[in-house]
Amino acid sequence: MPETNGSGGADRRAEMKAVQADIRREIQNLMRVQVAMNEALTKLTQRMDDDGLQRLEAAQLRTEASLHALILTVDGVIRGRKHDSQ
Hints:
Helix content is 88%, strand content 0%. The protein is an all-alpha fold.
């Protein structure tokens, strides 16, 4: 049965105020974290300027050339073995 008189109502109000204060603190913490994440993202974006993208593209081209050479080598080895075994 719900309490309508006495200190039960005051206790509930105090508890609700405490919960609201906790929620406000958590929101403030989340806002601080959001600001920190935004700053980190901004720094990362600045680092990935055109020069960084050009270096990344050059590295990808070198990797692609090396992979192509590897494929040709393995293909030659496999085909060479097939011809030797026949």
